[in-house]
Amino acid sequence: VLFMFTLYNSSDHRDRLK
């Protein structure tokens, strides 16, 4: 799950997660 999380974080999704 770490890999998926890293990929997600790398993307602009980081703003969406917040």
Automatic annotation (TrEMBL):
<protein>
    <submittedName>
        <fullName>Uncharacterized protein</fullName>
    </submittedName>
</protein>
